[in-house]
Structures are given as structure tokens and as C-alpha cells.
Design a protein that fits this description.
The protein has 268 residues and is α+β, with helices and mostly antiparallel strands. It has a domain of 176 residues: BirA Bifunctional Protein, domain 2 (2-Layer Sandwich). 18% of the residues lie in helices and 30% in strands. The chain has a 6-stranded antiparallel beta sheet. Strands 12-11-10-9-13-14 form a 6-stranded antiparallel beta sheet, with no helix packed on it. A two-stranded antiparallel ribbon has the order 2-3. A hairpin with a 4-residue loop joins strand 13 and strand 14. Helix 1 packs antiparallel against helix 3.
């Protein structure tokens, strides 16, 4: 870190026409409908296998802030592994609608010049009648979840930054809110379909998450438990008896902390 250079920088947009989600998917949002931001970090204080925690603390801080800004009960917003922010929706195919997604990338992990960018898009003051028709069954917004409450994106940003700072300071001191991360997980205890990079897919039961590695813990039909890192999968989809829901269907992104220099991905 260069002396006098702040670790964290912030860029905010009001509209997105060519946003990039995971695996090259697009993320779009009309003007005034979403809070769209990217945060830059110099996480020299994190080991490469802990970089995933940057995306996790961003997601948790935003979930806290969104509940405050929308007047929602504490804990109403959940995390779909790895870091999608969702809300339970009994009418949805797998019981959830997506509110926000996070995407992160890094370079130089483990060096004195480690850098990371974490982006997040939150569907804020976006009424249902303006949802893209092809995504209306998978997404929702804070406006809808709060039953029409106006959502001020500037106020949401302020609430987010207030909650992010102590989480980042704790992370710098070696502390991560494992209990809070576990408590918001909606994937735990759910049947999931896991799509692999080679095109194969199989079903498993998600039985938990690992607070040290950020891995999803799954149990296959033979009762054997194993860990999955984001870099090992293409999708993790919640499934129901009749249909499945793609966690990326609304175009926002799962969290991925990957090393651009070509090294192994540090994932959550």
C-alpha cells in the first residue's frame, strides 16, 4: 500500500446497460431503479484463501442496510450461497426471489500489491410492473418487498457504508462475523442442483457452509459430505420438487474472487 493512499475507493452508478455478471452474463438496470456500486480494496492483510471474505462482508453489510432502508424485519433478507441477497417467496418456484448480487475479482493475491474489486447491484426502487418480463418470476426489489415503500438509493448507500466500515476494520484485525454469515444462509438445508464447468450437473443436499474456507458443504445420496468452492462450479441452484430456480436468472452476479494473473481462484 502506498503511503497516504486510501485502501477503499467507491464508484456508484444510477443506471447500468452493460454490466458484467458471473461467467460473462450481463447485468442491466434502468435509471433510478437500483443501487449499483463497485468498491476497490488493497487487501494485503488477507491471505489468498480468505479473500472471499471481502465479498461476504459487503453482502452482509448491504443486507443489514437494505433492511433498515426498506423498514424490513432484521434477518428477513437472506444469503444464497455464495453471496446473492434473496428474500423468501412462497409463490416462487424454489421459494426465493433475488434482490441483489455481488461480483468480485482480485489480482496479486498474497503479494504486497494485492488488489480487489467487489461490485454489488441492489434492486432498490424498482416497481414490479417495470421488471423485465423474462426475469419477473426470479427477481424482486426492496420496493416490492416493503410493499411499495419508496427506497432512496442515496440513503441506502449511506446505511451501507456505515455498516461496511466496522466489518472491514474487523477483517483487518483478523475477525470475520462467521455467526452472522451462517445465520443469513438460506442455502443450508436445501436441495440444490450443482452445474459443473464440464457441463455435468448433479443434485445434492446443502448441509452448511465453512466459515474458514467459504465453501458450500453438500451431502450426496451416499451420505458423503464434501466441500465446494465457487471456482469448482458454474451454478448452484435451489431446486423444488417441480422446478428449479437459477440463482443468476435476474442477471446479477454471484460472488467470485478470482486471480486475474492466472493463479487458482480464491472463491467463496
Amino acid at each position: 500500500m502506498i503511503e497516504g493512499t486510501p485502501e477503499v475507493c467507491l464508484a456508484v452508478a444510477d443506471e447500468q446497460t452493460a454490466g458484467r455478471g458471473r461467467s460473462g452474463r450481463s447485468w442491466v438496470a434502468p435509471a433510478g431503479a437500483a443501487l449499483l456500486l463497485s468498491l476497490g480494496f488493497k487487501p494485503t492483510y488477507l491471505e489468498p484463501d480468505r479473500l472471499w471474505r471481502l465479498g461476504a462482508v459487503v453482502a452482509m453489510a448491504m443486507a443489514d442496510a437494505a433492511e433498515e432502508a426498506a423498514g424490513l424485519p432484521i434477518g428477513m433478507l437472506k444469503l444464497k450461497w455464495p453471496n446473492d441477497i434473496v428474500v423468501e417467496a412462497p409463490e416462487a418456484a424454489a421459494g426465493v426471489h433475488k434482490v441483489a448480487g455481488v461480483l468480485g475479482e482480485s489480482e496479486g493475491a498474497g503479494t504486497a500489491d494485492a488488489r480487489a474489486v467487489v461490485g454489488i447491484g441492489v434492486n432498490a426502487d424498482w416497481p414490479r410492473d417495470r421488471f423485465p418480463a423474462e426475469l419477473a418470476d426470479a427477481m424482486t426489489s426492496l420496493h416490492e418487498v416493503s410493499r411499495g415503500r419508496p427506497i432512496d438509493s442515496d440513503a441506502l448507500l449511506d446505511e451501507f457504508l456505515l455498516r461496511l466500515e466496522p466489518r472491514l476494520l474487523a477483517l483487518r484485525d483478523g475477525h470475520f462475523d462467521v455467526a452472522g454469515w451462517h445465520s443469513r444462509q438460506i442455502t443450508t438445508g436445501r436441495a440444490v442442483r450443482i452445474d459443473l464447468p464440464d457441463g455435468l450437473a448433479h443434485g445434492s443436499m446443502a448441509v452448511g457452509v465453512d466459515g474458514a474456507t467459504g465453501a458450500l458443504l453438500v451431502e450426496d445420496g451416499d451420505g458423503v459430505e464434501r466441500e465446494l468452492l465457487v471456482g469448482e462450479v458454474t451454478h448452484v441452484r435451489l431446486v423444488s420438487a417441480s422446478r428449479e430456480v437459477d440463482g443468476d436468472a435476474d442477471g446479477s452476479a454471484d460472488t467470485l474472487i478470482a486471480d486475474r494473473a492466472g493463479g487458482p481462484g480464491v472463491t467463496h
